[in-house]
Amino acid sequence: MRSSGRNSGSGGSRNHRGAGNSRDDKQKRAGRPRPEERRYDVGGSSDRTGSGKPASGGGRGAAARGGAKGGPKAPAGGKGGGPRGGRPQPPARPRELDAQIEERNRARHSKPQVKLPKTFGEQEGERLQKVLARAGMGSRRACEELIEQRRVEVNGKIVTEQGLRVDPEKDEVKVDGLTVATQSYLFFALNKPAGVVSTMEDPDGRQCLGDYVTNRETRLFHVGRLDTETEGIILLTNHGELAHRLTHPKYGVRKTYLAAIQGPIRRDLGKELKNGIPLEDGYARADHFRVVENVGKNYLVEVSLHEGRKHIVRRMLAEAGYPVDKLVRTSFGPIALGDQKSGWLRRLTNTEVGMLMHEVGL
Known about the structure:
Blueprint: H1 2-29, H2 35-40, H3 58-69, H4 95-109, E1 126-127, H5 128-134, H6 140-148, E2 152-154, E3 157-158, E4 165-166, E5 173-175, E6 178-179, E7 187-192, E8 221-223, E9 231-237, H7 240-247, E10 255-262, H8 269-275, E11 277-279, E12 282-284, E13 288-295, E14 298-305, H9 312-319, E15 326-332, E16 335-336, E17 345-347, H10 350-359
Parallel strand pairs: 9-15
Antiparallel strand pairs: 1-4, 2-3, 2-5, 5-6, 7-9, 7-17, 8-9, 10-14, 10-15, 11-12, 13-14, 15-16
């Protein structure tokens, strides 16, 4: 009976060991540690399993324990505590080298910026539609429509595409054949009252043209003159070349006047004025003459001429025997006085400026 008990006990133990050995074999073949090894392994290089191999997963346990407890971590070169893949950490860079690198970076960025060629930099000039819009030809979209309609010329060539760049100071821009003042020029028409002197400043303190443009930022000057008692249109601008041509006899810009005289007048007075009236400084000829109104002995006549000598209309009519009681200039070239009130200043439209430039070949 005892022997059978021993046999049965020994057989049971053998079966138990056989089952454990088979489980261990399966764990080894799968490459996984036994549960008790996982539980008590701390990742040290000296901790080994009963089989003599290092315990897997030890590095992870060491990192967890060291991080949780705040203790020291495994060295970088160790098998269990190294970075993933077992690669060694690069040595730390000395502070002197970091300072040199920082100094080189600062020196490189502190150099003056290299000026790129114009091919790679900003393009010259301004877009044509922007120049036209600034000159008062309408909104940019309206100016683009002018270009699409082939109504815009630059230096004598019709523009057929959008986005063309121009130099407002050098290029000649025209719309419908009329030059557009693309530069920062000002053009005004003043209905000068009687008693105003045709100067921008008067040393005697009399009322002058400058009194009507005192709030202008740029200096203006008058185109031609009107004597103190003559009323009517006079142009003011800062465009020197245009002003010069408008007053030069070579360009023959016509001026028209209304003169109040006493009659009766001779029927051939108009022919006499057109043929020429002798004056002390030479003959003076009218381009056009007509009677506008006649009430009894009071006559209102219109005289047009392209000369600009001092008091030329008054002198011509006085020499013909008809002194002038009142004189008004109603037009200067293509710019008419219209219903502009006496003493009023108005800015010329772009069309009027274009007509003036066309008159003198600009």
